[in-house]
Specification:
The structure holds two protein chains of two kinds.
Chain A lengths: L2 E6 L6 H11 L3 E6 L10 E4 L19 H11 L4 E4 L1 H8 L6 E3 L7 E10 L14 E8 L3 E3 L2 H6 L6 E4 L12 E5 L5 E4 L21 H12 L3
Parallel strand pairs in A: 1-2, 1-3, 3-4, 4-11
Antiparallel strand pairs in A: 5-8, 6-7, 6-9, 9-10, 10-11
Chain B lengths: L1 E11 L6 H11 L13 E10 L2 H14 L8 E7 L2
Antiparallel strand pairs in B: 1-2, 1-3
Classes of the chains: A alpha/beta, B alpha+beta.
Chain lengths: 229, 85
Amino acid sequence: MPKIAIVKFPGTNCDEDVKHVLVNVVGLEAEIVWYKEFSVNKWDAIILPGGFSYGDWLRAGAIAARTQAVDELVEARDRGVPVLGICNGFQILVEAGLLPGALLYNDVGRFVCKWIRTVVERPRGPWLALVRDGQVLDMPVAHAEGRYYVDEETYISTLLKSPVLKYLQGFNPNGSIHNVAGVGSEDGVVFGLMPHPERASEELLVPRGFSPGGRVIFESIAHSLKRGW
Amino acid sequence: MSTHLVEVIITSKAGVRDPEGETIHKHLILKKGYSAITSVRTGKYLLMTVNTNSAEEALKIVKEACEKLRIYNPIVHDIEVRLRA
């Protein structure tokens, strides 16, 4: 049975939600691992969940990105071990340079918590294995520093060749450039997104007019790992 | 060995929008008639106390720390490192 590590930093608070979905919704084995005890070689996939690591001090994710645990993720990536960053986890991956761009304060100047609609472009890799190109995924966002920024040159040279998640027209909650909500490495082994798929994996948690769009991400990793990613 | 105070000022690069600065400018400064002020950029300020033999060395150490530890994010930020007057 493949095992997934959910890495917990001081201030991480979505670890239990992610574990619940992995174990109870898609039937994987998962363990919450304290960042000091984390070592990359024990795991088949790694998730950095959301929260407020180190109180978002300096910049969201900036301090966690300089820990030994995140240094080791470079090794994971090089060996093809799937890595997913959700919300603060995405901020950490971007700060660590594992994914391109930067995440700035929302253009509305405050924390935003609401359901939004996204579309997947160029799905690839273990986290999006069951997603169709152009598939619409509904999920909630909950963040203050989620305005994705990347210079135009990098957008063209990197993002247009990589799996990207975009807010649909009218759903961009933070002023992200090109409506970017999430981005992967070119092969999709490393993926990060601001919306919370773990809060959109069960019908019970979904408001009227939306559907549980996060579930397919966890189903994808279950599918990929069981087929021996 | 002496003590030096080194200031680190981090601001968004030109071209990266700064909603807080824009709001202060538009809704406070211009509204109260200070039209000579044409823009406001917000940022982060760090004051570091450094023990070194010289001021040059203090600046060098702080600059190195800012680069290596990514105290600022070169993708979106400009940084100014200077001795406190």
